Amino acid sequence: QVQLVESGGGMVQAGGSLRVSCAASGRTLSSCAMGWFRQAPGKEREFVAAVRWSGGSTYYANSVKGRFTISRDNAKNTVYLQMNSLKPEDTAVYYCAATEACYSRTYYTSSAYNYWGQGTQVTVSS
User: Fold this and answer.
1) Which of 51, 62, 84, 87 is most buried, with most CB under 10 Å away?
2) How confident is the model over 96-124, as pLDDT tens digits?
3) Rounded Cα–Cα distance for residues 118 and 126 (Å)
4) Are 23 and 72 in contact (CB under 8 A)?
5) How high is the mean pLDDT of the chain?
């Protein structure tokens, strides 16, 4: 089992920045990559970004590319999502997730992830 705990959400004005974190514990060596997803009210959960523990390769949704940066600290078993130039449409609950899959083409779909955090709210006001 892998336990994931997100932190760092909050409210910010459009154009501002936030950083959310995800601390992993438990059998973290079983996971190959970490991802961030988000879900806005009335919408489906969507992929935001992913990073591989080994090598640090990153993957982004087109909607956040150039604005968001995912990174990881292997020593701390923590993944970060730095969000810049935030827009009201970025408002959502942000979830981190861990996958044991090592095929990058799967990282974009929520079904590939084995473990999920409880989510943290990010609200961007206009």
Assistant:
1) 51
2) 999 998 888 889 999 999 999 999 999 99
3) 26
4) no
5) 95
